[in-house]
Amino acid sequence: MRQEIAITVDAVIFKDLKSSARILLIKRKNDPFKNQWALPGGFLEESENLKEGAKRELLEETGVEVDALKQLKTYGSLNRDPRGRTISIAFIGKVKNDVIIKAGDDAKTAGWFRLNELPGLAFDHSKIIKDAKKYLRDHKL
């Protein structure tokens, strides 16, 4: 029996790490979770590796280019995506404070949020951000 499992990548991007850390989020243009905030990300293309996919999705949805991304964790809860079984690999990175963002592709808008003032989030992105915050406490980014 063949399994139908989708693979996605998500980018957890921080700035202002030394003062009041902020995280980059997009407001989704399409269902599921239309008009809700989420991490930049999307479906992996067959011709790219995981990190390339995360960088591409980040660029398409926010206009942000990032050199260094580190793989954070893999998320595969059965009901994390209402469209079907989806496994997501999250990457973590940082950008300079003066980076300019511009929503595009599947993003209606994009913005920076303080970690202690996050809106409601789509999918399981609040768990991903919680894991990213723990990573920041334990590692240098």
Features:
7-stranded mixed sheet; 2 helices; 141 residues; alpha+beta
Overall pLDDT score: 94
Q: What order do the SSEs take from the amino end to the carboxyl end, as H and E?
A: EEEEHEEEH
Any idea what the CATH architecture is? Alpha-Beta Complex
Helix-strand category = alpha+beta
Q: How many separate structural domains? A: 1
- What is the CATH top level name? Alpha Beta
How would you explain this protein's 3D organization?
With 141 residues, the protein is of the alpha+beta class. It has one domain (6-138): Alpha-Beta Complex (Nucleoside Triphosphate Pyrophosphohydrolase), CATH 3.90.79. Helices cover 19% and strands 32% of the residues. The protein is built from 2 helices and 7 strands, in the order ββββαβββα. The chain has helices at 50-62, 125-138; strands at 6-15, 22-28, 37-38, 41-43, 70-75, 86-94, 107-114. Strands 1, 2, 3, 4, 5, 6 and 7 form a 7-stranded mixed β-sheet that branches. The longest helix has 14 residues, at 125-138. The protein is globular and about 50 Å long. The mean pLDDT is 94.
What's this model, at a glance?
The chain is an alpha+beta fold.
Layout of helices and strands, plus pairs?
Layout: E1 6-15, E2 22-28, E3 37-38, E4 41-43, H1 50-62, E5 70-75, E6 86-94, E7 107-114, H2 125-138
Parallel strand pairs: 1-6
Antiparallel strand pairs: 1-2, 1-4, 2-3, 2-7, 5-6
